[in-house]
Specification:
Elements (H helix, E strand, L loop, with lengths): L2 H20 L2 H114 L4 H6 L1
Length: 149
């Protein structure tokens, strides 16, 4: 074998042996890194739990505010509807009064009409009597002449 090739092989073997000597130290390093990761994971879990709790509290506060806001709106709407109902009741009362007034007016008109008819009958009868008196005084005017005039 060539000396150069043999020297390379020896170097390679020495390097491999050195790496093998360091192997017992590597698991310790790996264990340190795993322990460090475990700590970071535990810290992350704690932070996430705190943040989720905070988000949950904020959501609950928002829900409570929203419910209170809707309750206030419902209350305002109920008060508004009550005022509208009161106004409608007043309008209904006014219409009822107007209906009563119209009925009274109609009754008065009917009574007036009846009185006017009675008065017209009396006048008609009076005119008929006067015509009869005139006819008697004039000596009996033929009916034809009365109709033409």
């Amino acid at each position: 074998m060539d000396e150069h090739a043999l020297a390379k092989r020896v170097e390679k073997l020495e390097k491999t042996v050195d790496e093998l000597h360091q192997l017992p130290h590597r698991p310790a390093a790996v264990e340190e890194r795993v322990a460090s990761c475990e700590g970071q994971i535990l810290q992350l879990r704690a932070e996430m739990r705190d943040e989720f709790s905070l988000v949950h509290e904020e959501a609950e506060a928002f829900r409570a505010e929203t419910r209170a806001g809707f309750a206030a709106v419902r209350s305002e709407m109920a008060a508004g509807f009550a005022r509208v109902n009161e106004q409608f009741a007043k309008v209904n009362d006014r219409f009822a009064k107007m209906d009563d007034e119209l009925l009274k007016g109609r009754k008065e008109i009917r009574l007036g009409d009846e009185e006017t008819r009675r008065y017209m009958r009396v006048l008609h009868e009076d005119v008929i009597e006067r015509i009869a008196v005139l006819v008697n005084e004039l000596g009996g005017v033929p009916r034809r002449s009365l109709r033409k005039s």
